[in-house]
Amino acid sequence: MADQTGNKYGTKLKDPEVRQEAYRQFCAHVATGKPIQSFFFKHPEYSVSYKTMLRYIKESPEEFPSLLMEEAQAKKLDYFWEQGIMICKVD
Predict the structure, then answer these.
(1) pTM
(2) Which residue, among 32, 27, 30, has the nearest Cα to 66 in the 3D structure?
(3) Which of 21, 9, 75, 76 lies closest to 48 in space, CA to CA?
(4) Residues forming beta bridges with residue 49, ordered by sequence position
(5) 45 by DSSP, 3-state: which?
(6) CA distances from 18 to 44, 45, 47, 71, 74 (A)
(7) CB 16 within 8 A of CB 63
(8) d(Cα 75, Cα 4) in Å, to the nearest integer?
(9) Which of 15, 27, 89, 90 has its CA 20 to 30 A from that of 8?
(10) End-to-end alpha-carbon separation of the chain, Å?
(11) What is the C-alpha separation between 25 and 44, in angstroms, rounded?
């Protein structure tokens, strides 16, 4: 079997502009308070789930500004507080 290290053939979103659009949609989704597991990139040519987005972010953090995700998470918390919804984490 060939070494797959660095192989980008399986990358669905090769266009940087499309990846950025996917990231913007991902952050907007997080900001709504919905679970990340329900995210799916809406694009006429591509389909990407939350797992793929998390992988992209992990593998290329310099391409996906963390400030956008931090803002989305802040909006999520703000939304819950405005709605009077209590957030509980059960381990």
Answers:
(1) 0.72
(2) 27
(3) 21
(4) 40
(5) coil
(6) 11, 10, 11, 21, 25
(7) yes
(8) 39
(9) 27
(10) 40
(11) 14
Chain centroid to CA 84: 26
Angle at alpha carbon of residue 10, lines to 8 and 16, rounded to 5°: 60
The Cβ of residue 62 has, within 10 Å, a number of other Cβ atoms equal to 6
Could you give the C-alpha distances from 62 to 6, 37, 56, 59, in angstroms and in order?
A: 17, 23, 10, 9
The string of pLDDT tens digits covering residues 2-41 is 445 555 545 588 899 999 999 999 999 999 888 999 999 9
Higher-confidence residue of 2 and 89: namely 89
Please name the residue that has the structure tokens 């509980």: 88
CA distance 21 to 44: 12
Burial classification of residue 69, based on how many CB atoms lie within 10 Å of its CB (0-12 exposed, 13-18 middle, 19 or more buried): middle
Q: Note every long-range contact of 4-12, with CB atoms under 8 Å and residues 24 or more positions apart, other chains counting.
A: 12/46, 12/47, 12/48, 12/52
